[in-house]
Design brief:
By secondary structure, the chain is an alpha/beta fold. It is built from 18 helices and 12 strands. Helix 2 links the parallel strand 2 and strand 3. The mean pLDDT is about 90.
């Protein structure tokens, strides 16, 4: 019987935080849980009472490097994004595998996220159960196109299915040398030429999705071993309190619009602050700007701040978003989920990766306007989006209804039950 689970969760804060919530849920269900993640999340794990194993390198330092900056602003080009990601991972592939292998010793089951793919190979080596756990859709279906499919692609059963095969082959082409190195180090046979994701299909690996079926519906052609559980939210600590200045700003007028672009770094951050402030002024709306650790250049922002604009480093989204009129952000899976859960409209300014996909979903659900590519972001376009968020009553009502649906779900609880049922079936 499985009693000890190791979760391999690599990536940025948005890639790790849902797995902290999952780990807490599994721990409450009496499992021993170890979270293996980049070293800069040791404090986050400690704050939530989790056993932690550091997997170098520090994800913020990596993303702030030249390759990371390019990857985070590559736009809606999945092939370029995947190749830059592989280039970045390649430098750390050996050390990440060795650290992850150490983290998984004496465990009964491995759960890995989309950046922790070494977890599958390690589980094969140790001959223990393994689960893929994703925060965005990855598995083939005829119901809708893949995350990386171009927006102009006609959506038919055939083109949808083929779009997943194309995405899988892009990953295989970019990462085949990394997978081969890992398997050689683990003394495992080479994977079939069809690639990693096809290998997961053939071996019938269970896969669990940490988003709401009300946001991305479950496809009719998925097997039972693919489960959508609802979002894995990690709420702020009960004793957390906003600063007096932030609370005072919120109390001083109508709900503001939130603008923040997460961990986007590089040249893009230099102009985002002034564009955001000029757009807020033009729209006549109050705003909160979140600088994050690179998304908006704080020195430039502070030069332009007025009484109607408040600058924060970071504030728990589950606390802040429910007090906003709307949110404008980069479209990361976690930030998108927080905005939808709050029941307020969202406008997405995608930069790369899964962000264009979430922007399209927000638009399709009728809870936000058409996404604005970061390369086409202007004061006029952002001002128009702010105006829509603040004044479109139909948009606001749909967002409220969707938020109620999401808040009624218990994604972590459902995930724990799902893992238990799937483990019993193995």
């Amino acid at each position: 019987m499985t009693k000890h689970i190791t979760i391999l969760a690599l990536g940025s804060r948005g890639d790790v935080q849902p797995y902290v919530a999952l780990a807490k849920g599994l721990k409450r269900a009496s499992y021993q849980v170890r979270l293996a993640a980049p070293a800069n999340y040791a404090l986050l794990a400690a704050q939530h009472g989790l056993d932690f194993f550091p997997i170098a390198p520090d994800s913020q330092q990596v993303m702030a490097g030249e390759t990371g900056r390019k990857m985070m602003t590559i736009g809606d080009d999945p092939s370029a994004f995947i190749h830059l990601l592989a280039q970045m991972v390649s430098a750390y592939a050996r050390n990440c595998l060795l650290a992850s292998l150490s983290a998984c010793q004496d465990t009964d089951t491995i759960v890995f996220n989309s950046f922790g793919l070494m977890g599958y190979h390690i589980a094969e080596k140790l001959d223990i159960p393994v689960f893929g756990a994703w925060i965005y859709p990855l598995n083939r279906t005829c119901a809708y196109p893949s995350m990386g499919a171009p927006s102009w692609l006609p959506s038919t059963a055939l083109t949808n299915w083929l779009s997943y095969l194309v995405d899988e082959q892009m990953v295989q082409h970019a990462f085949h040398h990394i997978f081969a190195k890992w398997r050689q180090m683990l003394e495992l046979p080479p994977m079939p030429i069809t690639g990693f994701y096809d290998y997961l299909y053939r071996r019938r690996i269970p896969q669990v999705y940490a988003y709401s079926a009300s946001v991305v519906p479950r496809p009719y052609d998925w097997p039972d071993r693919f489960a959508i559980t609802g979002y894995w939210f990690l709420d702020h600590e009960a004793d957390w309190q906003p600063s007096a200045a932030l609370q005072g700003f919120l109390d001083a007028g109508p709900p503001p619009v939130y603008i923040g672009f997460g961990s986007v770094v590089g040249n893009a951050s230099a102009k985002l602050g002034t564009v955001a402030i000029d757009a807020l002024r033009r729209s006549g709306q109050r705003g909160i700007l979140a600088t994050g650790w690179g998304g908006i250049a704080a020195p430039k922002v502070n030069d332009y701040v007025t009484d109607d604009i408040f600058v924060v480093d970071s504030v728990p989204h589950d606390w802040l978003f429910s007090r906003m009129a709307g949110v404008i952000h980069h479209g990361g899976a976690g930030t998108t989920a927080a905005g939808l859960r709050a029941g307020i409209p969202s406008a997405i300014v995608p930069f790369s990766g899964d962000q264009p996909f979430w922007g399209r979903r927000v638009e399709a659900l009728g809870v936000g306007p058409r996404p604005i590519s970061h390369s086409k972001l202007t004061v006029n376009r952002l001002s128009a989006a702010i105006h829509t968020l603040a004044t479109d009553n139909a948009l606001q009502e749909r967002a409220r209804a969707l938020g109620q649906q999401i808040r009624a779900e218990d994604g972590v609880g459902c995930a724990v039950d799902t893992f238990e049922k799937m483990l019993q079936a193995l």
